[in-house]
Design a protein that fits this description.
Elements (H helix, E strand, L loop, with lengths): L8 H16 L5 E5 L5 E6 H12 L6 H7 L4 H20 L13 H17 L1
Antiparallel strand pairs: 1-2
Helix pairs in contact: 1-2, 1-5, 4-5
């Protein structure tokens, strides 16, 4: 199968990173890496991932046609991202947690976010 190139491969790469975080957020709720001097070189949490997702992959912010050519390669990817958007909207419509904790990530609502994110990752591969 020939993969369709995207116009913004760096955004696609960032999208995969954010979605990977959401897919594993039921087990790892914050990612923090420091260099040898203790300077933070990577920090990822719920707010970072969710804000990035809605800023870059929310079809309300840009047209689906733009997403399809700029970041996403297929209609299947577009549908999977839309399903993840709906799962996140359902969670955020009920409550917006200040941070993810071990209890919150076990709720049925958050499990649906994790399942949707895992599905998106399988489609993006």
């Amino acid at each position: 199968m020939v993969e369709t190139p995207v116009r913004l491969p760096h955004v696609r790469s960032e999208a995969a990173q954010m979605i990977r975080f959401l897919a594993g957020s039921d087990k790892l709720m914050v990612v923090k890496r420091e260099d040898e001097n203790g300077k933070i070189i990577e920090y990822m949490d719920f707010h970072t991932a969710v804000n990035w997702f809605f800023d870059h992959l929310d079809a309300g912010a840009s047209s689906e046609d733009d997403l399809l050519g700029d970041v996403l390669r297929s209609e299947q990817e577009l549908v999977a991202v839309g399903d993840l958007r709906m799962a996140l909207n359902e969670v955020l419509g009920v409550d917006y947690p200040i941070y993810l904790d071990a209890e919150y990530v076990q709720t049925d609502r958050w499990k649906q976010v994790v399942a949707s994110a895992k599905h998106v990752l399988s489609v993006l591969s």
